[in-house]
Every structure is written in C-alpha cells, then in structure tokens.
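[AMINO ACID CHAIN]
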Amino acid sequence: MLGETPILRQLTVQVQRSRFPLHVPGHQQGRVLPGVLSTWLGSAPLIDLTELPGLDNLHDAKECIAESAALAATHYGSDTCLYSVNGSSAGVMAAIAGVVREGQSVLFLNPFHVSAWRGLVQAGAIPILPTGWFGPSAERLGVPKLEDVAQVLQAHRGSGDIGAVYLTSPTYRGDAADVGAIASLVHEQGLPIIVDEAHGAHFGLHRALPPHSVAQGADVVVHSVHKTLPGLTQVAWVHVRKSRVTPERIADALYNLTTTSPSYLLLASLDAAQAWLRLEGEAAAQHAYEVLRPLWNDELPGRVGANHYCGRNTRDFLRRFERGTALSASRRLQKQLEQAGLFPEYADAEGVLSIFGFGVTPAVVSSYQDILARWLAAEAPVAELFTQREHMRLSPVAAHAAIRFAMPPRAVWLAEREYTSLTACKGRIAALPITPYPPGVPVIWPGQVLDEETVDLLQTLRAEGTEVHGLKADGTLAVVAEGAPAERG
C-alpha cells in the first residue's frame, strides 16, 4: 500500500529515521501534547512533521507531494491536480482568481457557495446572476436545465467581458447537472467552465452515480475530498484541464490562500484518499449501493413527495432528503434520529438531509427506516410541499433581475462599513453576505441594495430561529458606510 501513497511512504521513512526532532512543530511528534488530546490522536502526531528533506514542499512540489497529486489526476483524467489543505473554499477562490482577470465577469448558472464571492473579491471580478433559480413550483435550490443555460448564454453573448462560467453541481442535496452538455454550450462561446463539485468527489465510482465533471469536459473542477471520500476535514483538491485555462495561474492563486506551513497530516490524508479512490473506491461504492438499495426502494405508508431512486444517474444515492412541511416537523425527525445515535447533516424548513457515506451498514439503514416510518405516521400528510408564503420567502433569491448591485465585490470589501438595524437598513448597501445555515448559500450579497422584500425575508428568517450568518443576535447587519463612493457592479 505504501507504494501507492508517496507522501505516507516518505513520512514513514522519516519516522523510522528520527531519534529526536530539532524542528517545529512544538509538540515534537506528540512528546509534549496535552494528555487528553494525545490519547485521542494516538500515533498520528508522529507524522505531523514539517518540510524536511525528502518530504517535499507543497508550494514547490517536485517529489512525493507531486507524485501523489499526479496519481490523483490519473483517476479523474485531469492534466493537473492541486492539493488544498484549506478546504474546497480555497479551491473555489483560487479557481476564480486564477481564471478570471480583473474587471471581467463571472456568469453564474445556479446558486453558489459564499466562497465563490470571496473568489470574486480576490480576482476583482463582477458577478452576473441569471434569473430562474427558482421556478413557481420548485422544491429546492437546483441545477440548471440545458435549455435555460442556452438561453442565459445567448442573452449575455457579446454583452460584456465574461471571463468564465460557473456551475455548482451537485447541489447540497445531491442533484447533478448535465455537466457535459452544459460544458459543450459554454465552450461553443469560447469560454471556460468552472464546476464546484465539492459534494461529488466520489462521482463516477458506480454506474448509478453521475459521472464526475472532469470526464464531462469541465475546465476546472473543485472537490471537497472530506465531504464524501475518506479524508480528514479540510482536505480538498482542484483538477485542471489546460486547453482553456493556465494551471500555473490557479496554482499561484491557491498558494496565495494557503499557509506556508501546511499540515502533513492533511497531506497524508489526501494521499490516502487518492489511493483509496483508485484501489478500493469502486468496490466500496458497490457495497454502499447494495446496502442502501432498501432505502431507495421503500414504500412507506403516508409517504409524501416520494424520493425513490429511479435508476437514473442524476442523483447521489449516498444522500437522502426527507421533505417536511415545516421547520418544526424537520426538527422532530432530526431529534428522533439523534436519540437513536444517528446524526443527520442538517434540518431546515424544507426537510432533513442525511449523508450515509461509504461506511453505511444494514443496521443503520434499518434503524433509519423504522424512525422515518414512525415520523411519517405522526405527521399529517400534505398535498403540497410549499405554501404560498414559502414561495414568497424564496422570491428575493429567485428574482435576480430585481437585485440591484450598487458596488462590485472588491469595492464593497474595501469600503468602510457600519452596522444598522433591520428596520433602518432599507435602501442601504449590504456590506457582507447574509447566509442562512444550512445550506450556506447567501440570500443577500455584498453590494446589493436592501429593498423592502429582502428586509422582510431577513425578519422572517430571524423570527423562525434560523441561523443566519451576517445577521447579529441583536438584529443588526453590516452596510456600506454613508458617503462611500458607489460604483455600478
């Protein structure tokens, strides 16, 4: 196995050679770690090393790190794989900053993570947000349809200096876009496409999973390795196909966002993950598919809005979203699962998301089904998932034609800011993103003029007890200070 994991191989060699470390980090391979932490970490601190001879350097990789990243690239078929120890957030920021020039625009095809906004700030770029992110009967933040993408590209053809097109696929809940067809449309316009595939690093391992975006022709693909692969939290990688973008520029941008002392525990985790993908991934995916089959084939009494797997590879079968009728109903299911020792990813007003992963067992599936059946029996069935009120809540996100950006991202970031109450912020310019968690997709962006509808949305979210980043406990939020110069973004 060590032959397939170059970084771990060299770390093992170093541990065997070392009698006593005369170098950082200060815990000295675990010798002076506090007892409780040392107990939990076990022997892991032995390989928490620094850039010693033979261990390569992430910022100028030529040896074991370069060899490991090349092996990861072979699995996906990319020209270059860049390792990130600062999560997929750094990868997303680097992708935008490394592809788009200052003053250019990024055309977003669907809702995106807040890290993409940070990438716009880094690049000095301008967002183009299309309409149609929600339909009148939409049930979730989704992926764009091919005809909608064609329409958006046609609408913006020749209308500005677009540097890249940006797509998020899959969504948090596991819906995957037709990346191949979308990439073809984008390439016909002579543009590169960046895909935030943070939740889909495992795609392509099984026939029932969507193919990954590198295989579908995307130019830059960002994977959050720790989300679905066996990797430690914070590990990610960025795949680059160099026909339309320059890998070196993305690498430079990534390293500008990375510590000069990257954790070798995280690098070892990336190394182990790439080996697992190539050697064990397909078998693990097949096993998980068989274990989860009863969950997708269930016919529970009273089931509303059935979410059965239908054999098409447009959904991630590792994820299950149980739709609810209200936040209170979702939290009841969440609590019942937690009482059984099963902790779902999140619960919100629309339902409960569970990510079963490759370590799922038949006992877990059986317990989940039993709890779900009891929950459904106790909840009154409803014919419609969304009330008219819920549609109205989502309308500020949907109606991007109505959003007014008074300042571009970097100008907002550099501007002086002040805090004001929700009742006094109408007509002001938002200075920070305002993001309900889950799922972490902002409903208000920096530079956006706060109108009555958006303020009503924030008041509703606050009243419901939703965790909203960017909105303080006292109900105040950051706005651009009075007198700051406004520029059309």
